[in-house]
Each structure stands twice: as C-alpha cells, then as structure tokens.
UniProtKB/TrEMBL annotation:
<feature type="binding site">
    <location>
        <position position="168"/>
    </location>
    <ligand>
        <name>ATP</name>
    </ligand>
</feature>
<keyword id="KW-0963">Cytoplasm</keyword>
<dbReference type="GO" id="GO:0005524">
    <property type="term" value="F:ATP binding"/>
</dbReference>
<dbReference type="Pfam" id="PF00183">
    <property type="entry name" value="HSP90"/>
</dbReference>
<feature type="binding site">
    <location>
        <position position="76"/>
    </location>
    <ligand>
        <name>ATP</name>
    </ligand>
</feature>
<dbReference type="GO" id="GO:0140662">
    <property type="term" value="F:ATP-dependent protein folding chaperone"/>
</dbReference>
<feature type="binding site">
    <location>
        <position position="31"/>
    </location>
    <ligand>
        <name>ATP</name>
    </ligand>
</feature>
<keyword id="KW-0346">Stress response</keyword>
<keyword id="KW-0143">Chaperone</keyword>
<feature type="binding site">
    <location>
        <position position="35"/>
    </location>
    <ligand>
        <name>ATP</name>
    </ligand>
</feature>
<dbReference type="InterPro" id="IPR036890">
    <property type="entry name" value="HATPase_C_sf"/>
</dbReference>
<comment type="similarity">
    <text>Belongs to the heat shock protein 90 family.</text>
</comment>
<dbReference type="InterPro" id="IPR037196">
    <property type="entry name" value="HSP90_C"/>
</dbReference>
<feature type="binding site">
    <location>
        <position position="81"/>
    </location>
    <ligand>
        <name>ATP</name>
    </ligand>
</feature>
<dbReference type="InterPro" id="IPR001404">
    <property type="entry name" value="Hsp90_fam"/>
</dbReference>
<dbReference type="InterPro" id="IPR020575">
    <property type="entry name" value="Hsp90_N"/>
</dbReference>
<keyword id="KW-0067">ATP-binding</keyword>
Length: 609
C-alpha cells in the first residue's frame, strides 16, 4: 500500500476547483466521460498499430448510477493505468501556479471554466464528491490492478486489487450538496447534452445513448440528402425541414468540420438564435458561438466541431484568438460561395427560397463588407406584383431610362406594404416605373446601410412623393387653372388644413392622378421606422409628428366642379373630404378626425341631387 500527498504547486487544489467551477458543476460528467473516451481511443490506436494484440471486445463506456450507495461510476475498457501511471497522471497535477491562475482571472467572477485547459478534467469529480475512487488495470500484460482513493484532501492511498478486465472505473461518492445528481432523469439529460455524439458507445441504464458517427464526421460524398435531413431531425426533432445545408470540412490552416442548416424563416417568423452547437472532437462545448460564427449567421442551425478553438477561456481571449478569426472568416466565405453556387446553378429554386434566405443575405451585407462584395451578385429584389426577381444590376438595366434622376442616381422604388400603398404603386406603374418589395423586419436597416455602399443608387419608397416627383428630373407640368382659380383653391385648402406639420402645395399633375396626394418625408419616415424597431440613435424621432406634404393636383377635373359651386360651405366640406381621403390612404386619419370624415361624407351624399 502506498500513501502520499498529491503534488501540486499550491497548498490545496480542491478549494480552487470548488470555488471556480461550482456554478458549472454538471460539467464533471462531460470531463470524466471524455477521459474514458480518450482512454478507449488510445487502445484502438494501439490495436491498429499492432501493439495491442488481444481482442478489443465490447469497448462501450458505462455510466452507472447507484442511488442506494449514492455513487456515480464511469467505467471504460480502455488502456487503463499502472500504479506508476496513476502516480504520474493523477498525483502529479499539471497546474502551473494557483496564484498565476487567480491573478489572470481576477475580476471575472466565479464562472471561469478552467477544466481541461489546465489538465484538471479528472479533478472536476471533486466538485460533487466527498470521495473519489479509481479502480484501474492497464492493458499491458502482467500488470497489477490498483485502487486510488482520495477524500478531497491532498492525501491519497493506492492499494493493489483484483480486477478481471482492463480499463478504469471512476467511482464518485456524491456529497450532500450534490445529491441532485442522484437522479436518473438529471444524469440522462446531462449525458444527452454533453455526450450525444461522442465517438465511442456510451451506455446508461443498459442502453446506448449516443451516435458515435454523426453526419458531420463523414465525407460529403458519403452522405445523401436524406442523411442530412435525418441528422437535422436528430438535432431538432420538432423543427420544420431545413431549406438546404452547408457541409464544412477543413484541415488547413485549422481543423474544422460541421454542418450548417438554413432553417425556413418567413418575414413574420419568431427568430431563434443559439441553435448552433460547438463541439471539440465530438465533445459538446457550448451553444454560444457568437465569436466563432459571423453574427449574421447566428440564425442558422447545426454543428461546428473544431479542436483548434480554445476552450475554457474568457470571452475576451476568444475574440482575439487568431484561429477563431480565421474560422469566422472561413465560414463567411463558405456560406457566400454556397449561395452563389445555388444562384448560378438553379436560380428558380433560389428564388423560391428567397423569403428565408434573404434575411441572412441582407443581414450579412449590412455587417460584413467581404460578404457584401460576393452577395451583390445574388441579392434579389422581388417585384411588387410577385414572381419576378431582380439583382441590383438587372434592376438598373431595366430602369435606367425612366428612373435616373437629375443627379445621375438610379432610383430604386420600393413598397413596404403593397396592399396599403396600392394607389401609389398603381400611379407609379402607370408611368412605367418598376417597384420592388422591402417588407421584412430587417429592410429599414438594410436600405439605410446599403444606400451608402451601392454607388449612384437612391432608395425611395413609392409613397414618398407624388408619382410625377418620385424621380426628380425637373420635368414639371403646368396647371390648367387660372391664377384666380389657383388662389381660390389655395384659400379653400388653407381654411381646412390648419395642422402645422402638413404642408399644402398646388401642382399641375396628370389629369388621371388622384386629386389630393399625401406623402411623408422619406428621411423622417425612415427615422421613425428605425425608432419603432429599437434604433437608439433615432429613438427621439418616434415622438415627433409626421412631416406631411399634401399635394393638390390642380389638373384634376373635380376642382373645376368644386370652384363652380355657389355654396362656400359646401366647397369647404368637399375640399376637406378630399384631403381626408388622402390622409386615410396613408393611415393618417384617426380618432375624432375620422369620425368627422364619416359624418361629413354621409351629409354630402345626402345633399346630392
């Protein structure tokens, strides 16, 4: 029998483990099962090289819960350890200075995860245990099985034992504070979370609970579309089928595998982030992949696996790590290349998926200039009538003749609510203009940003001005009214429209245009739109009144009829009704004003002969 003290460069490692790991103590399952996997994988390697000549037999790792004795055992049939190896790997803890560690992570709270990074995986068992036993027998012929015992102090014992099979059993005697882990359901959930795709069979309650060969570990050439879809169901059993997927497989200058799925998302769909799981050699790490995956792809689903991502370190270190930056850039490029390939190879299918794809593409174009350069080729704008799509270059080619303003900028006319803005759309279409839809939650931000990045382009909402003025070409029509008639009409509107935020102008428009057209300032409307979705910089615009321009079409024949009326009161009511109709078309007539409009309309209809 051997007695001794665990040799570390600090007085006692256990208070440090408990202090810094207590908030994440379920991780002990991951660490101990991962160690068992490592031991099994090493034995498989020895068998492949011919050093281990016996049959491998059943190499499944077992997790055994004994409620009566309050123990959890992790049992493997891997390489095991000799007494000397136990002394080397367990007693001589590779911990380079507790003081250095404490200073490095000072001020970061008690959630710093040091497991693995400092070689302390096994010692995580003491977070939940009052005593830990190791029963182990080496794969090497003729070696003695031993038992290591420790009660959480630096003191340990090693004794010879009889053990019929090679491998290692870690027996944790659960302490009172951690008895929550003596629950079948809790252990099962932890195993599902951390061990679902480990490369060695894991058994719990007599059943295998993991898939050792998940789809991302295979070559794309080995997988069918059905394989990818089945794996998606394995990850998200209740989710709708994905649109498509991207298989990542890189071995230089870093190691990275994984599958990213594009979920089906509509413009009204509730968006869910944190659906990408990060693994390291098939060991689950986290679903917080913000620094590894570009922000605009955080809505994707799937798995990323890379042993080159630094684990168990602070977020600030993650952000600065060169491998993380390279992986982030590679994922961006891979996604852009895939979308470009889909667009070029099967544009109709790409267009069918655009409602979902567009959200990712627009977000990426706003936030990542490298992605923007590639996405300009496959970003699409859908015609307001639906079914026809344009790239920006295609839209420019089709609208160059009619939609270039006096500054030489191409005006992209768009609608955010085609049904509500129908009268403006029809007026613009009558002039031969092309109107596209921008009606998703991201479009306000997209337009404001992309307008500064696309050269010689200006976005104008279809209801931002009267159709004649949507494209500022300095082409003006004359009024058919005399100067006296124009003054009379101006006076009539002046008596009825008294709000300070409404500017009334008389202009000679097409006779078939609306008699009164209400438009809102494009700048002010954009700011209010941004404020409505939480744009802090523009928030103060939310409480400001709308800047409204009320354009009176002096060439509409209805005004000659009104001016010929002998009854001034009726003239005023007719003019007010025309103004209210225009306000109503923009949802700007509410409350008492709307009630007055309805009553006035009924009254006017009653006076008609």
């Amino acid at each position: 029998m051997q007695k001794g003290a665990i040799r570390v460069q600090t007085e006692n490692i256990f208070p440090i483990i408990k202090k810094f790991l207590y908030s994440d103590h379920e991780i002990f399952i991951r660490e101990l099962v991962s160690n068992a996997v490592d031991a099994t994988q090493k034995l498989k390697t020895l068998a492949r090289t011919g050093e281990f000549k016996e049959e491998l037999g059943d190499i499944a790792i077992e997790v055994i819960l004994d409620k009566e004795n309050k123990t959890i055992t992790i049992s493997d049939r891997g390489i095991g350890m000799t007494a000397e190896e136990v002394d080397k790997y367990i007693n001589q803890v590779a911990f380079s200075g507790a003081e250095e560690f404490l200073n490095k992570y000072k001020g970061q709270g008690e959630n710093v995860n040091i497991i693995g990074h400092f070689g302390l995986g096994f010692y995580s068992s003491f977070m939940v245990s009052k005593q830990v036993d190791i029963l182990t027998k080496s794969w090497k012929p003729g070696t003695q099985a031993v038992k290591w015992e420790c009660d959480g102090s630096p003191e340990f014992t090693i004794t010879d034992i009889e053990k019929p099979t090679r491998g290692t059993d870690i027996v944790m005697h659960i302490n009172e504070e951690s008895e929550e882990f003596l629950d079948d359901t809790r252990i099962g959930a932890i195993l599902q979370k951390f061990c679902k795709f480990l490369p060695v069979p894991i058994k719990y309650n007599g059943s295998q609970i993991n898939n050792p060969t998940p789809a991302w570990t295979k070559k794309p050439s080995e997988l069918t579309a059905e394989d990818y879809q089945n794996f998606y169901k394995e990850l998200y059993p209740f989710a709708e089928a994905p649109l498509f997927w991207i298989h990542l497989n890189v071995d230089f200058p870093f190691n990275l595998t994984g599958i990213l799925y594009f979920p089906k998302i509509s413009k009204t769909h509730e968006i869910q982030k944190d659906k990408i799981n990060l693994y390291s050699n098939q060991v689950y790490v986290t679903d917080e992949v913000k620094d590894i995956v570009p922000e605009f792809l955080m809505l994707l689903h799937g798995v990323i696996d890379s042993p080159d991502i630094p684990l168990n370190v602070s977020r600030s270190y993650l952000q600065g790590d060169p491998n993380v930056r390279k992986i982030n850039a590679h994922i961006t490029k891979k996604v852009a290349d895939k979308l470009d390939e889909m667009f070029r190879n099967d544009r109709p299918s790409f267009e069918e998926k655009w409602e979902s794809i567009g959200l990712f593409v627009k977000y990426g174009m706003i936030t990542d200039d490298k992605f923007l350069d590639k996405a300009n080729k496959f970003h699409l704008m859908e015609d307001v009538d639906g079914g026809k799509f344009y790239t920006v270059e295609e839209y420019k080619a089709e609208t160059a003749a009619l939609q270039t303003n006096k500054e030489g900028k191409q005006v992209i006319l768009y609608a955010t609510a085609p049904v509500q803005q129908d009268s403006y759309i029809q007026a613009a279409k009558a002039k031969g203009f092309k109107i596209v839809k921008f009606e998703t939650i991201i479009d306000a931000a997209f337009i404001n940003t992309i307008e500064t990045k696309w050269e010689n382009v200006q976005f104008t909402r279809v209801d931002a001005d009267i159709a004649d003025h949507l494209i500022d070409t300095e082409d003006k029509k004359d009024s058919v009214l005399t100067a006296d008639q124009e003054k009379s009409l101006t006076d009539l509107f002046g008596t009825q429209i008294t709000q300070s935020n409404i500017k009334v102008t008389l202009q000679g428009l097409s006779a078939d245009a609306q008699p009164v057209i209400v438009t809102r300032s494009e700048f002010m409307r954009r700011m209010k739109d941004m404020a409505s979705v939480g744009g802090a910089a523009a928030a103060w615009y939310a409480n400001m009144p709308d800047e409204i321009t009320m354009t009176v079409n002096a060439n509409h024949p209805i005004y000659l009829n009104i001016l010929e009326q002998g009854n001034v009161e009726k003239q005023q009511k007719l003019v007010r009704n025309l103004a209210d109709l225009a306000l109503l078309s923009q949802n700007l007539l509410t409350g008492a004003d709307l009630t007055a409009f309805v009553n006035r309309s009924v009254e006017l209809m009653g006076t008609e002969k």
